[in-house]
Amino acid sequence: MLILLGIRHVYAQDSVVYEPSGLELEQTMRLFQLQNEFYESPALKPHQHTFSYSQIFGQYNDQQNDLYIYQLGNGQKSWQILSESYQKPGKDQALWGKAYYANKKLLGINYNESLDYEIIYPYVMADTIGGDLQSETYFFEGGYANRWKTLTYGFSGGFRGVQAYRDHDPRPKNTVSDLYLKMSVGKMLSPIYEISVDLTGGLYKQRNQLTFVNELGAPYISQEAGFGVYNNLISGSNNTAYINGQRIRSQLNIVPVTKNGLAMQLAIEDFSFHKQLSSIVDNIADANEKKLYAAIGYLRQSDQNHSLIQFVFEHNRREGVEAKFSNSGNSTSITKIAEDLRFLNRGLIACLNAGYGTLHPHTAWTISANVAYKQNEATYADPNRRIDVSNVSASLEIGGLHHYHKTTVNAVLSIQKNSNLSEQYQWEQVKTGSGVEKMLQSTYTYLSANYWKLEASFGAFHPLTYKLKGFIKLAGDYTRYAHPFNGHQLILSAGCIF
Q1: Omega before 170 cis (within 30°)?
Q2: Number of H helices, E strands in the chain
Q3: By C-alpha distance, which of 115, 151, 109, 146 is closest to 127?
């Protein structure tokens, strides 16, 4: 999201006389962030920046939306502390790391008592009450790259741990462990171009437990299979679930080390997971998702001018296999008798980005534009339910930076228009006016909505000591859907660069 573009700000450690630098620009404006995405491969990290930096900052986030997907909630209130560093010990070396703690209150979640809905959908534990959910996230990652003879070797690894809870009924106790390791090898093809190959492996685990203390009763616990469908035989009193998954991704990168020329990326990813209940031996659901990612761009930069044009294509297909069970008249013995492919989700994104920036003494500005086509189709078989939506969006961003005396200020303004091209829905055997119908209707309305979105950010940097600078940043957005719906977000950040 463009709202996030102005949050991180860093300065070269040895800067004495101010000149607008690529460092300041790439941390505040979309043009330079798009450029750096081509150099995320660990083996290419030494070419991503020409400087070293470290920073620590705190951030507060307040977000609310009138249109939303029930399982994701209608907003959040959160704060986090983040530290980040990128160091260049030598010309062909890079050392980097990042860590943060985030405390979030996820608002208005319903039909979902699990975490990471966008990762494990549609197989969540659910009830019809829901409510706000408190979560804490711990994240650590780091990497190192170095050239040895004719090859550059790089690796990175990271861990994300999450725990979430609610202090009133229903009371989920959820934990997530998400671990990854990436290995990369690069080789110069010419004095200008370098090729790298990345291989990433990851393990994902989640534990859900839902309890109630109200002696007057508890709502029905369902093990969701998609579109509000669940199996009565394995729902009801089963309140503990386990999800285990693994991810493999391979990626090919070709980039100009001078950031002048053609850049390309091609990646394939496979993610699969299964869900189990504590009271049943067999998996109740298995899911597999395959992703294809391709990007091609042309980069151009000189001492004063920077430009980029980029085309991105993404495609994903997720299949969900649901188990069938029988208790053979014995409520204490549930046996798996078959399994069927019941859930299918396909998505496609085609995006064109372009940007131009220019640097002058004490001043710099950039302009960037984006046009994107998105399609999302989800289906469930027996009962037949379906949502198929396609949208096109266009955005324009203008940013500027100016240095006055010892203080540097910047501002970024963007506007986005999203238009629905087509939408279809069908949900059989859904009772009119029921909670499931309201949930499905909210999802459909959100995905097919036309809207305008305005985003702005303003920041200031000021030296505190010779090698220590402080910054403060305010960013926000306003989304206008069809009357009377709207949404907003406010982000306040403050920290130090050293």
Answers
A1: yes
A2: 4, 21
A3: 109
37 φψ region: left (φ > 0), alpha (ψ -120 to 50), beta (else)? alpha
> Quick check: helix, strand or coil at residue 93?
strand
- Tokens representing residue 490 in the block: 């406010």
Tokens linked to 67: 């249109």
What integer best gives the mean pLDDT of the chain?
Answer: 92
75 compared with 232, residue with greater pLDDT: 75
Query: Model-level pTM?
Result: 0.92
Residue type, 48: Q
The mean pLDDT value for 34-61 works out to 94
- Phi, psi at 149, each rounded to 5°: 60, -115
Other beta carbons within 10 angstroms of residue 4's beta carbon come to 14
For residue 9, what are its two tokens?
A: 């700000």
**Cα separations in angstroms, 287 against 86, 283, 325, 341, 349:** 37, 11, 18, 9, 21
Cis peptide before 172 (omega within 30 of 0): no
Binned at pLDDT 50, 70 and 90, residue 286 comes out as very high
Contacts of 229 (CB under 8 A, 6+ apart): 342, 380, 383, 385
203 vs 219: CA distance, rounded Å? 33
Mean pLDDT of all residues in 406-412? 91
What are residue 231's phi and psi, to 5 degrees?
-95, 115
Contact 323, 283 (CB under 8 A): yes
- The closest alpha carbon to 286, from 303, 271, 274, belongs to 274
User: What is each CA distance from 69 to 49, 127, 157, 193, in whole angstroms?
Assistant: 38, 15, 32, 44
3-state secondary structure of 247: strand
pLDDT digits (tens, 9 = 90+) for 109-168: 999 999 999 999 999 999 989 999 999 999 999 999 999 999 999 999 999 999 999 999
Average the pLDDT over 440-461 and give the result: 96
The Cβ-side half-sphere exposure at 328, using a 13 Å CA radius, reads: 5
Cis amide linkage into residue 122, ω under 30° from 0: yes
Considering the domain 2-497 in this protein, what is its CATH number? 2.40.170
Beta-strand relationship, 75-87 and 486-497? unpaired
The structure tokens 């709202």 sit at 3
**What is the three-class DSSP state of 468?**
coil
As given in the structure block, the two tokens for residue 198 are 């990345």
pLDDT classification of 91: cutoffs 50, 70, 90? confident
Q: Convert 450-475 to b/e letters by CB count within 10 Å (16 or more is b).
A: ebebebbbebebebeeeeebbbebeb
Token representation of residue 293: 């990612």
Percent of residues, the chain, with pLDDT higher than 90: 78
